[in-house]
Amino acid sequence: MAQFSNDNLQQVLQAIAQEEGVSFTFDAAAIETEERLSSSLYTNLPIKLLTIFGGFLATFFFMGFLMTTGLYNSNVAMLVFGVLFIVGSEVISRLRNDLLLDSVSVSLNIIGYLLFGIGVSELSNDVTLALTLATIATAFILVSDGRVLVFLSVLVLNGSLMSLPYIFELPGLLHLYVGLAIALLAYMSLHESRLISASPKLNKLYSPVRIGMVFSLVGVLILLSHQDFATEQIQHTWISTILFVISILFVLRHVMQDTGVIDSRTQAIVYVCCLVMLAPTISTPSIAGSLFIVLSGFYIGHRLSFIIGLMALGYFIILYYYNLEITLLAKSGILVLTGCLFLGGLYLLNRYIRTHAK
Amino acid sequence: MEKINRELIHSIARHSNWSGQSIAAWLRKEKVYAGTQDWIKFLQLFLLGLGGSFIVAGVVFFFAYNWADMHKFVKLGMLESLLIIVTLVAVFGNFSKVVKNVLLTASVMLSGVMFAVFGQIYQTGANAYDFFLGWTLSVAIWVLISRFQPLWLLFMALINTTFILYTNQVATNMPFSYVVNILFGINALVVIIWEVLLWRNAISDRHKWFPRVVALAAISALTISMIVGMYDDFRGDYGLAFVLAAIAFSAGIWHGLRTRDLFYLSVIPFSVIIVAAAGIIRLAGPDPVGIFLLASVFVIGSIALLIHNIIQINRKWHGTVQ
């Protein structure tokens, strides 16, 4: 086995090689370089945040500059500059595998999408705008190497797809989008190992696409629960709720398999409790939706998506009770009753754990 | 063998023919995925948090309902009895620490409801600053002894709200820069107390998000104060914000280097970068063509430099060689 300067990595690879047998081959140099780049767990979050916030700040000033030069007078110029910046962002991110250039690349990318969007929307109609943005974003996801760039493209692609039902005045189609997005996120959350071992490209796409899908789902939940944002009303919101509930049950099934809850009676009780809990929210998909994000994030131990899900859940629960058209007294009764049910659930859970611990 | 994280597993999978099945096993073995114990803990906290907050919200709504027929003594009496019962259960009940803390948080919220009902009965208005002041003072001791970070955060929100309402309702002619400088002072003081307590091992450093949030509030207030000062030709506080920043930021950087805490080393320079960029725009005067470009380049350059330095420092701390 190749010699590593990093003992821990060597031990890990040896352990894997033992399990996998002689067929296990790996590129030691590449793994070590990447391990060194990420260096330690502590670097990741502050540096990522600095890159993103720095990118936004620079974008803000650069937009100010572009506006003072009078670029906005020419739609064609904006379109051309937009394309140039989008391409430029990818070129810069490939120059060196270095975090330093990422802030430049990220800000160019955002400006690129903005300028391109403004240019196209002035020159053409909404359909063209949505479709061209979706095409560019898809191409970018397939080609790009940068994580933040792929994440931004996932957001652009999902935003374009979300806008299509409104543009074609068929708001019901939004449920189709919701279904596809749920299916993708659920599949990604439950089959991480299969996806990251399938090919190096899928492996690289996994993290940015998954977190991009989480943000997009939160976005569509906001659309579904704030109908006054859009001109078109979305009917039959229960369709989305049912899709979310199915996905929650699906995740719960995996959780119970993993945690060794095999007794079919207990499984049935869990499903029924979940259904009863979510039944009153049938016309507001946002609660089931954010619960799905919370559960799928917790399942794979992905902290960021878990926290985003929790924040969304808190917001949507408050919104749900705020919008409930009953007297304050009735609300109060429902809240106290539901609260007692949750505490009752806690009591039953603790009892179940005690009996099974013996 | 050290614990390995998701990033490393992804990296190895990318550059090898590691099988999906084995990866799945490793993700569980290395506890990247939630195990049975994690799920139990999650469910317990989830049910407890939801149950507790739903019941408190229910009580709030109950009293927000306009009970025209109920005598004021009955209203306040009911609330006070509830408050006493919850607090007694929190103190003497045979529960885990988390449950007791959640109950105490419920008591704190109920005290707020009591002040609101008082305001409703005597028509003082629900957003009067003295209502928040009373609430803050009456729960202070519970908050101090609870050692429960969510409760501390709630308390800080109360203090900040009280002060902001005070400047809106009573000290209406206090200059804006004073308001933000004082907000900075309040929050910075709490962060300092937290750090001192930590240094003397009086509290655990397992969860750091409370001091983080408060520090962010303090630094944001000071950043706003500095920018407003610049655009106001320092007429508000005569540059006091910059003096405060010079002291607090150097102390923060020193502390960050000493305790190997990247938080201060990234947030403080970021604030300085924002202020400097705003300063560049300020210098441009009425015709800012080109100066925006300069500011943009400045931001990119300084962020890049900052990240570069953080990586260097982190390498030094964690001993990885380049």
TrEMBL record, chain A:
The keyword Transmembrane helix applies. The chain crosses the membrane at residues 45-66, 72-92, 99-121, 127-143, 148-168, 174-193, 205-225, 237-256, 268-298, 304-322, 334-353. InterPro entries: DUF4401. The keyword NADP does not apply. Keywords: Membrane, Transmembrane, Transmembrane helix. It comes from the Bacteria. The lineage of its organism: Bacteria, Pseudomonadati, Bacteroidota, Cytophagia, Cytophagales. It holds the Pfam family DUF4401. It comes from Pontibacter populi. Residues 45-352 form the DUF4401 domain. This is DUF4401 domain-containing protein.
From TrEMBL, chain B:
The chain crosses the membrane at residues 45-67, 73-95, 102-122, 128-145, 152-170, 176-197, 209-231, 237-255, 262-283, 289-307. Keywords: Membrane, Transmembrane, Transmembrane helix. InterPro entries: DUF2157. Residues 44-152 form the DUF2157 domain. This is DUF2157 domain-containing protein.
